[in-house]
What does this fold into?
Amino acid sequence: MRLTDIALQNLRRRKMRSALLVFSVVIGVASIIFLYSSTQVMKEDVANKLDQFGSNILILPDSGAAMNFGGITVEAPTQVKELDMSLIPLMQTIKNKETLATIAPKLLVDTKINGQTILLLGVDFRQELRLKKWWKLNGLAKDQIPSANEVILGSDVARSLGLSPNQTITIKEQEFRVTGIIQPTGSTENDQAIFIDLTVLQKLANRPNAISLIETAALCYTCPIEEVTQQLSAKLPGTKVTALKSTLESRDDTVNRFNLFARIVSLILFLASSLVITMTMKASVEERTREIGILRAIGFRKRHIIQIILTEAGLLGSLGGLLGYLLGMGAAVRYGSVLVKTQVHIPWQANLLVYAILASILISLIASLNPAWQAAILDPTESLRYM
Amino acid sequence: MSLIKVREVTKIYKGGDGVVEALKNINLEIAEGEFLALMGPSGSGKSTLLSVLGGLNPPTSGKLIIDDIDVYALAPERLADFRHEYVGFVFQQYQLIPYLTALENVMLPLAITSRPGKEQRDMAQTVLDKVGLGSKSQRLPNQLSGGEQNRVAIARAIVNEPAIIFADEPTGSLDSKTAMELLELFQTLNQGGLTMIMVTHNQDNLEWVSRAVYIRDGVLVPIPEEA
It folds into this structure.
C-alpha cells in the first residue's frame, strides 16, 4: 500500500464529492477550451474578413508624385517611372508567398470622354473582384467576371455620363459594354473611375506590360505583415512597398478585443473553478478529521497527509482536464463555428489536451494547497477527540 | 528496567470553560514487557495520560522518557516518526478507516515505509491470522462485528512491531465474551514481549494485567477498595 492507494480509495468512497470536484474542473476547462478555440477561429475569421475587406500592401514606383489613388499618391502615367508585369512572378518568390492571397495590378490612365477627364483603371477583373468584396454591383451577376470588351463604371462616372448596365461606352475609339455599375462607395478611386481589362488598357494606351501600382492582400493572421513588406521590398527593386497601417491597426484592435474578452472570461472561470476545488477539498478535509487524526497518531508525517490530499486533487484535476478537453473541444468542433457565426471550421487540437490536463492539475493543486496544509497541521489529539 | 518514565507531568487545558488541570504532577515508571491497567472514573484524566504517554499530547510541564528518548523534546516530524516506530494505538470505537478493507487498514502503518507492496500484504495477513481474522481480510469494517473490528485495530497496532501498545477502553463496547477473548489476545501479545498499557474502568479486567494504577482528578492514587 502506498499513499496513492489511500488517496484512490478515498476518492472511490466519496464518489459524489469527487464527481463534484471533477465536474467543476470539467466545466472550467471545457468552457476555456471552447472559448479559446472559438476565439482563435473568430480571430482567424475576422482577420480573413479584414483581409478580404481590401488590400493591405500597396506597391508603387519608387519616386514621382502626380496622381492620387485612395489617399495614396501615385506616379503620373505620363512620367517615365512605372512598374511592369514582370514584378508579379517575382512577388511569388518571397519567403511568405503563401500569405499573398490576392495580387491586383493596376494601370492608371486618364482619358477624355464627352469632354470629361476620367480615370481609366486597368485591372485583372478576377483579382480585383476578390479584393473588393464589399463592392455592390448593379448589373453584374454573382461570380461573373467581366470579359475583355466589358467595363465596370464607378457610380459618379455612370451618373455623369448617363450610363446604365448593358449600354455601350466608347473609350479611345473602342466600344465596350457596361457590365456593371458600382454602387456609391464614398471613395474617389471607386466612384470616379472606369474599370477595364488590364491587357486591353495596356494596348489602348500603347503601354504593353505597364502597370502603375499593385494592390495585394496578404493574409497575415499567421504572419507579421512588416516581414512580408520587407520581403517584397527586397525582391522588387525600384518599388516602394507600403503596408496600409489603418487596416492593420483596425484588425489588431479587433483581434485584441477578442483576446481580452477571452482572457477575462477564462480568468473568471479559472477563479470559479479554483474556488469550488478549494471549498470541496476543505469540506473533504473537515469530514475526514478523524481519519487524519488516526493517520497522524500512527506516525504519518505532515507531508504524508499533504501528499494524500494533493494526490487526490491531482487525480481529480487530471480527470477533469481530460473530460473538460473532450467536452470543450467536442463542443467547439461541433457547434463552435455555428455559435460564433463563422464559416471557418474548428479543428481538433490535440496539443490543447496536454495544456488542459497540466493546467487542471496545476489549478487543482494550487486550490488544494490550503486545505492540505490545514489537514497536515491538525492536532492529532484534537482530531481524536472526534472519536 | 523501566521502558517508560513519566517525570512530574502536568497537563493544563485552557478553553471556554476556564482552566482545567487534567494531570497534576504525575510520576510513573513502566517496565518493558509490563501489562499495565490505567484505571479511574470518567473525567479522571486517564485518557489524557494515555495520550501523553503515546506521544500524542505534549504535557504542559514535565517529561516523558521512552527508551531513553525525551519524547517531547523531539521535533514534530521526528515525534511522528517516533510514534510510528515505538507505539501502536488501539482506540475506543476501533477507529478503522471505513473505505479500506481489514487488510488495507492493517497495512496503513506500512504505507509510509519503503517495504514493497507484497511484503506489506504478507505482514498484514500474518497479523490478521494472528488475531484470528485471516479469512476476513477483504471485508470492509462495516461488514465486521464490533469484536472483529477491535481485532483489526489490534492487528493494525502491532503490524509495525512497536515496543508499546496503548489501548483506550478496548473492551468498553464489547459483550463480556468478546471482551474476554480480546483480553486473552492482549495477554498473548504481552507474553510475546510487548509492553501493554490499557485504559479501563472495569475492575474485572485487572486479572489480566500485571499491574494497575488508579487516577482520580488528575492525580495517581492508591486503588480504592470500591474500584
Observations:
- The interface with chain A takes residues 51, 54, 56-57, 76-77, 80-85, 87-89, 91-93, 95, 97-100, 104, 107-112, 117, 120-121, 156, 160 of chain B (CB under 8 Å).
